[in-house]
Amino acid sequence: MNWITNYVRPKINSLFSRREVPENLWTKCPECGTMLFHRELAANLNVCGTCDHHMTISPRERFDALFDGGIYTEVKVPEALVDPLNFRDQKKYTDRLKAAQKASGQKDAMLVAEGEINRTPIVAAAQDFSFMAGSMGMYVGNAIIAAAERAVKLKRPLVLFSASGGARMQEGMLSLMQMPRTTVAVQMLKEAGQPYIVVLTHPTTGGVTASYAMLGDIQIAEPNAQIGFAGARVIEQTIREKLPEGFQRAEYLLDHGMLDRVVHRKAMKEELVTLIRMLTGQPPAIKGDLPSPAEPKAPRPAEPKA
Question: Distance (Å, rounded) from C-alpha 207 to C-alpha 139?
Answer without folding.
Answer: 15
